Amino acid sequence: MSFAREGLIFIAIAALIAMGTFAFALNRRSWPLWLLAFLLTVIALWVAYFFRDPERTGERSEQVVIAPADGKVVLISEVDEPSFMGGRAQRVSIFMNVFNVHVNRYPVSGVVKYVQYNPGKFLNASAEKSSLENEQMSVGIETPRGRLLVRQIAGLIARRIVTYSKVGEKVTQGDRMGLIRFGSRVDVFLPMDAKVRVKIGEMTIAGTSVVAELAPR
Prior knowledge:
This protein has two domains: 46 residues; 150 residues, Distorted Sandwich (Glucose Permease (Domain IIA)), CATH 2.70.70. The radius of gyration is 19 Å and the shape is elongated. It has three helices and 14 strands. A hairpin with a 5-residue loop joins β2 and β3. The longest helix is centred in the N-terminal third of the chain and has 21 residues. By secondary structure, it is of the alpha+beta class. The strands form three sheets. It has an eight-stranded antiparallel sheet, with no helix packed on it. Strands 1-14-12 form a three-stranded antiparallel sheet, with no helix packed on it. A three-stranded antiparallel sheet has the order 4-10-8, with no helix packed on it.
């Protein structure tokens, strides 16, 4: 299994602490220390599990929009998005809990035209107001079928958004675009004429699930 490079330092620290506690327990021959070492090993395994970065395959075309995140669809709504979409847009919100893969992927191929970081709060990412008030990173992509915006939103536990995107670069559908640590949300803003193919409560898999179809231009 491969791991996100941003998580390697956390995996190494957790593993070293667990191994050090095992060595200390062996030296002291203490059952409480053995128990602590066991618990720290479980935590180290969970840290490695959290930062897993599996390869993903699925449908690829300029017509479809694939899920940028693993998680649960919590909101589908029409909103104003003036910063990049230039008006009304359809928004699909995917909530990631601490057990989901947190590597995010580009939902479409195109050229990055907009990258904007906004500092903010760390409210529950599944709540409606987190889209406006939480720390977030927005990435706008120009495609042959119009514009699309992806917004990474930090959550109640998350304290770090990582985005690889740079204005002017060409990106490929399904490639890694970043990650958010420890519980968060990703919103996809679609043109009004796009056909949403997911429902609230549905689970998505980043790089595999199709969330919408874009209308031809």
